[in-house]
Design goal:
6-stranded mixed β-sheet, 63% helix, 8% strand, Rossmann fold, two-stranded antiparallel ribbon
Amino acid sequence: MSLFAELKRRNVFRVAIAYGVIAWLILQVGETLAPALRLPDTVNSVLAFFLLLGFPMAVFFAWAFEMTPEGLKRERDVNREHSITGVTGKKLDRVTIVLLVVGLGYFFWESRIRSEPEVASGSVAEQTRDAESSDGHSIAVLPFVNMSSDEEQEYFSDGLSEELLNLLAKVPELRVTSRSSAFSYKGTVFKISDIGRELNVDHVLEGSVRKSGNTVRITAQLIDVDEDVHLWSETWDRTLDDVFEIQDEIAGAVVKALKIQLLDATPRSAKTVPEAYSLYLQARHFLTQRSEQGFRRAESDIKEALAIDANYAPAWILLGKILIEGSGIGVLPPAEAFPLAQEAITEALRLEPDSGIAHAVLSDIALRYEYDIEAARRHVRHALQLDPGSAEVLDQAATLNFTTGAFEESLRLQRAALDRDPLFTQYRLGLGYGYLYLGRVDEAIDTFRKVIELTPAAQGPHYYLGCGLLIQGDIDGALAAMEQEADSGFQHTGRALVYHAMGNSDASDVELSKLMEDGEGYAYQMAVVHAYRGEIDKAFERLNRAVDLQDGGLILLRGDPFLDNLRDDPRFDAVIERVGLKPAG
């Protein structure tokens, strides 16, 4: 008897097929359950390793042993006349067919789920709708006034305000305006009613901080915007060791004053020692400067804080954000910044597994550095489950949908983020991108003009306004917008596009040369210019270089109208695949 016939008689092929189907189903179940059980991302890799290790063992046992009515026996000890391998083979066939049916059912279910927007779900939609109609449970936490004699202590009053904001944001029944919008009123004269209207909130929490050595006086008051009356106020004279208890008491007082019926207990502050907390607040203060000097100081302070208390999870999250920011402003190369940031966030999750912000940051790393869309999806879904009211989490979910081409869902999530932080430039810009790439150019132009009205010196909105006007055919208006762009690279990109549309190729070349002088950080913008001008080979050269550099502009690949000349070229699908996306269609 030939070897093939003997392998067939001993059901080796049937066992191999059945084992393969079972292993695949186990891996799918593992991928589904791992996030829900908060298991590390490596669990499926370990599972796959052991399943692969088990395959040759299963084949060996099928060859060397036979299942008989008396139990498992070595094949050479079984009388061929009494062998039941034929019966066993039929049973294996039935088991394999059943498993294949289950597997195909799972495959079609998974395909249908994954063809939908990346993070769309009824629970998330309901959360954003509930927050938008918050039934009077909405609040802005204004920056507490620094009453200390030392102006440098302002980082402490700002930090305390932001900590209160983050603490209250953990109350699902309460919509809290994010930091950038609330802090835009710092140092200005304002009316409470104006804040209520501009931020769409019903209540305002304000106060003051006086810090002297190890003692602190904190005053807080809650104001009803419509009635302009104080619902509650209190003053604490304590030591710095008590600052976390004060924060918890303020949060509890707000919940009680607003008569919020909590499903869970009032959130509590993460605690550390005063020295580490002060350094943590300082680091966060310097991070907002978005400069190399600010980055260096923020990195130094947060590492010193962690040297004092390595178990303070918020400090690990902040370190991750600082490292990513360092990459964004060109201080650190992505290949150095992102792995270190991932280590920091992973440590934060070990200490605080329920941090939605930490999962949002991991989603950002997976999306922009690892080009792992599946990991980005898992993390953002988990983040939305843990912290569905966070503007930062909603923005990351919007970015993921935008990157994968689910522009309608991205718009919905971006509106929800903007509802919580209505004055934040980046969220409104994201809304404009969505309109522009859906072809709703009039709405995009209106959105970019609103951004310019709110933050005239911001980088980006004049460029994107010019893009919208260029698409509409308003060449002069587009050029005027590009001329006002604050970012040098964007300005040169915009001028190169507009001059090409005018037919002035020499002027377009000059602007492209200037863009190249600005450095490879604008690799994506260089690709846009080449693509728009019909220089296809050069465009793909720059696009692939942008992928090598983890260029942030790559999130625009799916819908950027200035890349339309590339979309029918097979090389475009190759670029799409390089960043972890599936080709269109």
